[in-house]
């Protein structure tokens, strides 16, 4: 199910508005049916997603029909609710027809570490908006923005956080 997050945004005119962003959890989308609106055919079920190399956008949904794996470009998803609706079944691609070499997949359940080697748990969810933009990656109750990560591979590596010193700078004697 989609849920809403309320954020406050200040525009150039100096007026602050609250905006509601509807987000979907990838973990809740897994096993949902993919349905073609044209002929009411069940095309398969969502099994995973491919993300761009910085994990900022969903590029494809990975789905399985009864025989094989297929890719559904995120842009071809007409609606996402209790099912993922597709206008045309010809939008589906074979994995061989898509270049996924720089894309990231199978994120859920991967370990998350800091640059110093401290475990932050495992990735439990990816939250994304209506246009496929990733808003947060959740690990053990903590939400991280995609820009918080240095790399995505067998593990997810967070960027090193530098803490600024609060000691005042003393001028160098001449």
Shape: elongated
Specify the number of helices. Answer: 1
Mean pLDDT: 85
- H-E order: EEHEEEEEEEEEEEE
Helix-strand category: mainly beta
Stretches where pLDDT is under 50 for at least 5 consecutive residues are 1-6, 8-20
Q: What is the terminal-to-terminal distance? A: 65 Å
Rounded Rg: 20 Å
Q: How does this structure look, described?
A:
The protein is mostly beta strands. 2% of the residues lie in helices and 47% in strands. It is built from 1 helix and 14 strands. It has one helix at residues 26-29, and strands at residues 3-10, 16-25, 33-36, 42-51, 58-64, 69-73, 77-80, 84-86, 111-113, 119-129, 134-139, 142-144, 149-152, 156-158. Strands 1, 2, 9, 10, 11, 12, 13 and 14 form an 8-stranded mixed beta sheet that branches. The N and C termini lie far apart (65 Å). The model is unreliable at 1-6 and 8-20 (pLDDT under 50).
Short précis:
2% of the residues lie in helices and 47% in strands. The chain has one helix at 26-29; strands at residues 3-10, 16-25, 33-36, 42-51, 58-64, 69-73, 77-80, 84-86, 111-113, 119-129, 134-139, 142-144, 149-152, 156-158.
Features:
8-stranded mixed sheet, 6-stranded mixed sheet, 14 strands, mainly beta, elongated, 1 helix
What's the layout of helices and strands?
Layout: E1 3-10, E2 16-25, H1 26-29, E3 33-36, E4 42-51, E5 58-64, E6 69-73, E7 77-80, E8 84-86, E9 111-113, E10 119-129, E11 134-139, E12 142-144, E13 149-152, E14 156-158
Parallel strand pairs: 3-8, 9-14
Antiparallel strand pairs: 1-2, 2-10, 3-4, 4-5, 5-6, 7-8, 9-10, 10-11, 11-12, 13-14
């Amino acid at each position: 199910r989609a849920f809403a997050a309320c954020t406050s945004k200040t525009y150039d005119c100096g007026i602050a508005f609250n905006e509601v962003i509807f987000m979907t959890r990838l973990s809740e989308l897994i096993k949902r049916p993919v349905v073609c609106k044209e002929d009411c055919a069940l095309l398969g079920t969502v099994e995973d997603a491919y993300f761009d190399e910085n994990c900022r956008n969903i590029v494809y949904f990975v789905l399985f029909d009864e025989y094989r794996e297929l890719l559904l470009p995120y842009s071809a998803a007409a609606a996402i609710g209790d099912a993922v609706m597709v206008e045309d079944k010809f939008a589906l691609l074979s994995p061989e027809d898509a270049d996924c070499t720089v894309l990231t997949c199978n994120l859920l359940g991967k370990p998350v570490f800091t640059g110093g080697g401290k475990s932050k748990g495992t990735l439990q969810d990816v939250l994304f908006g209506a246009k496929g933009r990733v808003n947060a990656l959740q690990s053990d109750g903590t939400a991280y923005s995609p820009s918080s990560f240095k790399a995505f591979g067998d593990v997810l590596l967070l960027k090193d956080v530098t803490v600024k010193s609060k000691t005042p700078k003393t001028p160098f004697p001449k």
